């Protein structure tokens, strides 16, 4: 039995939905997840609408702590992903089904629109240290 993909893509013509699918870990991002998202965003040039969302109650807790210890925090894949989203010719929407935190803020801010479910929060703890998303 194979594990469910950590990022899923649903396409209906020009309407694309990319979903972070790691709800048991608050959709914490790993390098393979970020690479998959960047690949999807780069391929979405034909999408008229690109929606980015998360499964479960949290959009994303940011970088997975184990992955961050191995250098994910400074990986160029973050910029690749945010740049690909920002460059999309169609409308990009971050559908925040719940809280967004840390490194996930970059991809959310790269979207044209952010729509949040009631009770969703956003925080970037390292801003106190002078780091910007």
Blueprint of the fold:
Blueprint: E1 7-12, E2 15-20, H1 31-43, E3 49-54, E4 58-60, H2 65-69, H3 77-86, E5 91-96, E6 99-101, H4 104-110, E7 113-116, E8 122-123
Helix pairs in contact: 1-3, 3-4
Descriptive overview:
With 133 residues, this protein is of the alpha/beta class. It has one domain (7-129): 2-enoyl-CoA Hydratase, Chain A, domain 1 (Alpha-Beta Complex), CATH 3.90.226. Helices cover 26% and strands 27% of the residues. It has helices spanning 31-43, 65-69, 77-86, 104-110; strands spanning 7-12, 15-20, 49-54, 58-60, 91-96, 99-101, 113-116, 122-123. β1 and β2 (15-20) form a beta hairpin. The radius of gyration is 14 Å and the shape is globular. The N and C termini lie far apart (38 Å). The mean pLDDT is 91.
Query: What is the CATH H-level superfamily?
Result: 2-enoyl-CoA Hydratase, Chain A, domain 1
Number of domains: 1
Count of extended strands = 8
Q: Report strand %.
A: 25-35%
Low-confidence stretches: none
CATH topology: 2-enoyl-CoA Hydratase, Chain A, domain 1
- Anisotropy-based shape: globular
Gyration radius from CA atoms, angstroms: 14 Å
Give a quick account of the main beta sheet: strands, pairing sense, barrel closure. 5 strands, mixed
Q: Cα distance, first to last residue?
A: 38 Å
The helical percent reads: 25-40%
CATH architecture, please?
Answer: Alpha-Beta Complex
**Which CATH class is shown?**
Alpha Beta
- Specify the structural class: alpha/beta
Number of helical elements: 4
Which H/E pattern describes the elements?
A: EEHEEHHEEHEE
């Amino acid at each position: 039995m194979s594990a469910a993909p950590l990022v899923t893509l649903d396409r209906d013509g020009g309407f694309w939905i990319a979903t972070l699918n790691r709800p048991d870990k608050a959709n914490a991002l790993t390098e393979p997840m970020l690479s998959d998202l960047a690949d999807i965003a780069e391929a979405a040039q034909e999408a008229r609408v690109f929606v980015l969302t998360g499964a479960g109650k949290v959009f994303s807790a940011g970088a997975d702590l184990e992955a961050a210890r191995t250098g994910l925090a400074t990986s160029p894949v973050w910029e690749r992903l945010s740049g690909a989203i920002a460059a999309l010719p169609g409308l990009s929407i971050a559908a925040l089904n719940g809280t967004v935190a840390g490194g996930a803020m970059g991809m959310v801010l790269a979207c044209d629109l952010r729509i949040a479910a009631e009770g969703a929060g956003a925080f970037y703890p390292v801003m106190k240290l002078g780091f910007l998303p």
